[in-house]
Amino acid sequence: LTENTKTETTAGMKFVSGTLHGKDIVIVVCGVGKVNASMCTYALISRYNPDVIINSGVAGAVSTKVSVGDIVVATKSVEHDMNTTALGDKQGEVSFPSGMVMYFESNKKVSDILYSVCKAIPETRVEQGVIASGDIFISERKSRININETFDALACEMEGAAIGHVCYCCNVPYGIIRAISDDLDENEGMDFVKFCELASKKTVSAVSGFVKAF
Question: How far apart are the first and last CA of the chain?
Fold first, then answer.
């Protein structure tokens, strides 16, 4: 879909720039985990000065409100593994010179456009809510329920809140869309690779729709 593409490599990551629907875009795969996501986001902001950053991918459900194949659009994100409770802080709170922040708010205009374009995807339920991120793959049902109860989250993954954290610091609007790859029933028979192919088609369609509408 992207035209006039050019590839640059920074910190081992390939940034592909080009045009989509007549607008300049940059695409990059950040890799797994909060550090990779943070490094990628800061490099993206420093090099390309984007108007908005969209993170897409897959996530696990931590709520019965969503199941396999659904899409969650973040209203805000939280680092569920951030823990300085021994110092009297709340689970998930991040310390800044100006004070404590638990949730990194998605830009409302961005979130609303993403929700609208995702709703147009056939046979796909879309929910808006909190996405929780941490440097651990959460498979245990009890741990997922705990994340839901602590943060009122719909889904968990390993990058989104780190991207939100950097965007918060750099004052760049951001949004997250995640296709649910597994729900609270754990889906032992699921072909994860096949699901990711299906999910990528949905999220690519959503991002393309977003670029056109933004």
Answer: 17
